[in-house]
Amino acid sequence: MISEFNEEVTSRMLLVAQEKAKIMKLKINYTCKVPGAYDMPIIVNALLQKKDVDGVVTLGAIIKGQTKHDELIAHSTARALTELSIKYQKPVSLGITGPGMQERHAYARIRPVAERAVEAMVKVSDELQRIQK
């Protein structure tokens, strides 16, 4: 799941996440794009209902503007994604940078955040499977 807002950053995050998934020998069944991070929960909800989806990696960059709008977007999105993960008992990793982040910070976080988002989804999925046996 990728946000198109701040696409210069998020498109690079997607490439890194795909590269990491390939290294980890993961199968990506769906790559979905939404206008912004705030728009992710409805698509994540639909994905988590699918039998061939074990988890979702979200990728986005919420860059600070002149108001606190970035904080509102980040907090509401994180809360909604967490609630969906719990509801469906499938991991939804938060590869969304921000709030309070300047553009230069977003570029610096592309690789580490995208890689960790993939790794986190896999680790949580593995742990869920282990304890549900």
Describe the structure.
This protein is of the alpha/beta class and 133 residues long. The protein has one domain (2-131): Rossmann fold, CATH 3.40.50. 56% of the residues lie in helices and 17% in strands. It contains 5 helices and 4 strands. The protein has helices at 7-23, 40-48, 69-88, 103-108, 110-131, and strands at residues 2-3, 33-34, 56-63, 92-101. The strands form 2 sheets. Strands 1-2 form a two-stranded parallel ribbon. The chain has a two-stranded parallel ribbon with strand order 3-4. Helix 1 (7-23) packs across helix 5 (110-131) and helix 2 packs parallel to helix 3. It is globular, with a radius of gyration of 14 Å. The N and C termini lie far apart (29 Å). 33% of the residues are buried.
Distance between the termini: 29 Å
Query: Which spans of ≥5 residues are poorly predicted at pLDDT below 50?
Result: none
Strand content: 15-25%
- Could you name the CATH homologous superfamily? Lumazine/riboflavin synthase
Strand order of the largest sheet: 1-2
Secondary-structure arrangement, i.e. CATH architecture: 3-Layer(aba) Sandwich
Tally of extended strands? 4
Rounded mean pLDDT is: 96
Overall domain count: 1
* Largest sheet composition: 2 strands, parallel
Please write the string of helix (H) and strand (E) elements.
Answer: EHEHEHEHH
